[in-house]
Amino acid sequence: MLLAKVIGNVWSTKKKDAISALRLLVIQPLGKNLKPDGNVLVAADEVGAGFGELVIVTQGSPAMQAFNKTDLIPVDAVVVGIVDNLEIADDVAGKKK
Questions:
Q1: What is the per-residue pLDDT for 71?
Q2: Does any domain span residue 87?
Q3: Domain containing 42 — which CATH number?
Q4: Does residue 94 form part of some domain?
Q5: pTM of whole model > 0.85?
């Protein structure tokens, strides 16, 4: 899983039936310092996240199973949580001062 920030929405009038009812968001993965880290992704939204929110995202095979469907759905990333609070220790192992 990773932390990301919602930076946009995707609207698509034509898509596979398996994802026709899914809301799609544009997300920016974040690194340890909560700065952008990595390429922007499109993620299906299972929890109703909004623009600018910090979210928890799962990718790969777990994302394909996130919606409890009998068949796997063709997605690479799914928003599975909205972060309410985040605490990161100052002395994280491996962090240089």
A1: 74
A2: no
A3: 2.40.50.220
A4: no
A5: no
